[in-house]
Structures are given as structure tokens and as C-alpha cells.
Amino acid sequence: MSATTSGGATLAALLGALDAQSSQPLYLQLQQALRRAIEQRVLGPETALPPERVLAEELGVSRITVRKAIDGLAAEGLLEKRQGAGNFVCTRIDKNFAKLTSFSEDMRARGRSPSSVWLKKSEGTVSPEEALKLALSPGTTVYRFERLRLADGHPMAIERCTLAAWTVPSLTAVDHSLYDALDQAGHRPVRALQRLHALLLTDEQARLLEAKPRDAGLLVERLGYLADGRAVELSQSIYRGDTYDFVAELNAG
């Protein structure tokens, strides 16, 4: 059986022929072609790949070659191997806990389309907790932002962020990407401390995330710093527990 995409073409035809004369191993060529198809949304989330045998026959390679390519993408978090069901484009997002990136950057790196629904933008005086964490004096003006973060139109996280007013020109300077606004103002964080907590979603959080009340969630608190040591960003993001995996590379010594 030949597997086809929604456009009617076989996946093998969309991936293109592999070059047996190339110095690059065939499994790496296939891995790159599949990765490109995922990033360009030729293969969307939850798309089932053809059986390894079918894909091998259509590409004219061994099943071992196909399996090595798929295993590599599964290790990257782009594909999910389901026992008895096959291989699927992953819907979960692997967030590198050791890398300082924005939500939009994470989504684009996975071939997903990021967007936001603004819940609130406000200007006010720093709270005692914010003052302590951001090292601000009492009475300092801050901007607060709350929005629902989406990937391909599906809710992924509720994000609340506080910035000292001096970090961006105005409250309206933050539009699609908070980090883009900070970058343009010359105040993008270069390092951050992050804390991860497990929680159960409240009724309101579950409604926004299209989950069920008391479903598992993840709370990530981030405190971002400039190169000179000043704290500029205090954020709390609540993620659906079934959509995000947080990973970090650990080294001995």
C-alpha cells in the first residue's frame, strides 16, 4: 500500500530521490528530507508516516536506512513511535530548559506557527514580590502583560509577564513577540533563572487551554537578566502537561 498526503502525492515523491552516490549516508539524507517536510508543514502534527516497509520500497532503500532516519528524528522529538500504531509527527513540544528562547522562536524551530490572544495589558506600580525579584524600588512603574500562546491555532500556554517600564518604549511596544520588543530596545535578556513546578489547572486555566479542570499542568517561572546583571523580565507561564516536555543537557564535573 502506498501512503499519500492530503494532496494525493506519495510521501516518497514529495521527499524526492535519495542520492546513492553522495558522501552523505542515505539515512541522513532521508532524515533531512523528513525534517524539512515537518518544518515546512508538508507533514503536520499527528500525521502518520507510511509503514517503514512501504517507505523503504518507494525510496528504493533498506528498511534499516528508514529506521535509522526515523529513530534520529524521534530522538529529536519531531517524531513519536507508537507501539502497534506506527510513527507520527509529534504534537508535543520539547523545550530546552537550558536555552534562553522565546515561545515564538521555539514554535518556529518546530515548524509550528505561533500566535497570541491578548488577555490583558496594563501599567501599574511594582508589587512587593515583583520589586524583590526584579530588584526595583517601591513605586517603580512596571508593565504587565497576560496572553494566551497558541501554536497552529491550538492553545499551549498562559503567559503572564512583568517588565520594568524602562525596558521598552511604551506599553504598546510589545505586540507579537515580547523578546522582539526587548531586543529592539536593547534589553533582551542574555541569561535567566527558571523554576518548574507541577500544578493542577483551575477552571479558568483549563477553559483557556481547552483542557479539563484539575488536569496536570506545568508552571514555569523565569527571571531574565541583562549582561550587566540587571533583572528585566519576570514571567510565569502555565503549560498544558500533555503538550510540553522540558529537557536539559547535563554534564559531569
From TrEMBL:
The keyword DNA-binding applies. Transmembrane segments: none annotated. Keywords: DNA-binding, Transcription, Transcription regulation. It comes from the Bacteria. It holds the Pfam family UTRA. CDD domains: WHTH_GntR (cd07377). Residues 24-92 form the HTH gntR-type domain. This is GntR family transcriptional regulator.
